[in-house]
Amino acid sequence: MNTRNYLTCLWPGLSELWWLGRLSALPLAIGFAIVLNSLLVLRFLYPTWLDPLLVRLACYLVFISWICWTIKSAKELPKLLQPRLLSETPDRFPDAHQAYLQADWPAAEKLLLGVLAIEPRDPPALLLLSGVYRHTGRPESAAALIDQMRLLEIADPWRIEIEAEMARIRRDRETSDHGPVEDQESSANADSDAEKRVSGDEDQGPSCAADLTAA
């Protein structure tokens, strides 16, 4: 794990907000900011507003709480970043990948949904599920997953794969939009050719029969 990821542990609630987008951690982050700024104001700008001993004691308590929370966040960070590896449930991503390669779309979708239930922001699982949706005729759902991945910081290393998958979705959309019209035109041309061939056969019935007999 990259050591820079632990920088988010230095602010209470930031790691959950940054990596998982949990809004439940937002009040903690805002509350810590309010308390910290209030103590800085009371300690350095207006030290006479309250008893200096009381302000100093509050600073010590906040500092100790900050250290404890930083240690707690650092211990929980691996679980936030790689919950599948630390979960008691077996990792089914390899099975989902195998089912995808075998074009077993129902099995792949079921396994990938189970993986995402444990780790909702896993880029490889989201990419594969987008491919499953694309192969099963659900381009809108596939595009929605790609749009979701574009908003994830953790998905930055997968930008090339994300854009490639989006290009495939656009290609399939264009094919589905123009495919039926082309099929209708091809069918109409085939019917017209068939009518011409039938008319020609009727006009040249004896000669065709002679050719067939000769053959």
Automatic annotation (TrEMBL):
InterPro entries: TPR-like_helical_dom_sf
Family annotation (Pfam families): TPR_19
Transmembrane segments: 25-46, 53-72
Domain of life of the source: Bacteria
Sequence segments annotated as region (Disordered): 171-215
Entry keyword set: Membrane, Transmembrane, Transmembrane helix
Basic and acidic residues bias locations: 171-181
Protein name: Tetratricopeptide repeat protein
Originating species: Roseiconus nitratireducens
